[in-house]
Design goal:
This protein is an alpha+beta fold. Among the domains are: 90 residues, RRM (RNA recognition motif) domain (Alpha-Beta Plaits, 2-Layer Sandwich); 110 residues, no CATH class. Helix content is 23%, strand content 19%. The longest helix is centred in the N-terminal third of the chain and has 12 residues. It is extended. It comes from Lolium multiflorum (Italian ryegrass). This is CCHC-type domain-containing protein.
């Protein structure tokens, strides 16, 4: 019969430690440094979800996403976390410095680990994210101001001012807090200026509470009126891949195509006659393509055929061998019996 399993920290606080308990082995500093060399390029990771999942599927997915140059090893921990170790600096930097990494649309929390403490004691509560700050007035579009604004969203890592209509920033998002929807500038003596925040490639989040790791159907009872949704899809930024996909789809539909005209309207896709010889999308002025045919010929009404058509041959008749007809004589080579006898060779 198993009992409770308190943590080591709880035991140390509740027990009276005596001198004999403080014994142990001595490890020289040189050996510690050698052990650190063997334990480098490690990290601790955990999936931001309360649902069960296949550990082997997670490892396979991450290996595919990381595309390591050398072997990546995993070790399972008791609290649902994993230790991952790379064999080269490049793989380790990609694992720990890039991202965000997702597994089944859930965030993968990763922290660097030097092996000097228990892996289960490493706090996993943040995830990388690229954010976009929109609606920035040109007066305040200065790097030092945008740096302070991005720090309102998460722990700032970098700011990129080349985003066109918006400003990019890379931050650590604290998963213990709701997503930031707006940032504000308060000029002295003037009204506040609100700017929207959008997120690129973030995990699933709740439209009700704004926290990462679950969706609105899993928040509380899961029953919420539409007006309770304060964190809609407008928080999601259009990435470069989304923009490229949309542009490639539009490029396949030419400007003279009635399909494109119907695709951009709410009406279902159909075609209707505009005038004799022309066809186009319904509701548009004029046709989009001219068809070359004789309208008068197309409007003629032909009477039905008279009589009964001959029956089709049966399968047996199709397979029956045809009778050989008598050979036709060539009029140019036809000879009489007498003439043939005259030229018959002498026996």
């Amino acid at each position: 019969m198993g009992g409770s399993n308190p943590s080591l920290e709880d035991l140390l606080q509740s027990l009276k430690i005596k001198g004999d308990d403080l014994g142990g082995i001595f490890v020289p500093k040189a050996e510690v440094e050698a052990l650190k060399e063997d334990s480098k390029w490690m990290a601790v990771l955990k999936v931001l979800t309360t649902k069960t999942f296949s550990a082997s599927s997670l490892k396979q997915t991450l290996r595919f996403a990381w595309a390591p140059a050398q072997v990546i090893t995993f070790r399972d921990l008791e609290n649902g976390s994993f230790i991952v170790q790379a064999k080269c600096l490049g793989d380790w930097q990609r694992i720990t410095d890039q991202g965000p990494w997702l597994f089944r649309e859930q965030g993968v929390l990763i922290e660097k680990y030097d092996g000097c403490c228990k892996a289960t004691s490493v706090e996993l509560n943040r995830i990388y994210a690229w954010i976009q700050i929109h609606d920035v007035p040109e007066l305040f579009r200065k790097k030092h101001i945008m740096t302070d604004l991005a720090a309102e969203v998460g722990q700032l890592l970098a700011v990129d001012m080349t985003g066109g209509d918006f400003v990019w920033a890379r931050v650590w998002l604290d998963v213990r807090k709701a997503l930031t929807r707006f940032v504000t500038i308060r000029p002295e003596g003037e009204s506040p200026v609100f700017m929207r925040v959008k997120y690129e490639k973030i995990p699933k989040y709740c439209a009700i509470c704004g926290f990462l790791g679950h969706v609105k159907e899993e928040c509380g009872s899961g029953e919420h009126p539409p007006e309770a949704e304060g964190f809609g899809t407008w928080l999601l930024a259009e990435t470069v891949a989304d923009n490229r996909k949309r542009n490639s789809t539009d490029a396949k539909l030419t400007e003279v195509s009635p399909i494109k005209e119907a695709n951009t309207s709410a009406a279902p896709l159909m075609l209707e006659w505009k005038s004799p010889g022309e066809v186009g999308a319904p509701g548009e002025n004029g046709a989009k393509k001219h068809l070359e045919f004789d309208v008068q010929e197309a409007e003629k009404v032909y009477p039905p055929p008279v009589g009964t058509p001959p029956p089709l041959p049966s399968a047996w008749e199709k397979k029956r061998p045809k009778k050989h007809a008598p050979a036709k004589q060539d009029l140019n080579t036809t000879v009489t019996a007498g003439s043939a006898a005259e030229h018959r060779p002498i026996q």
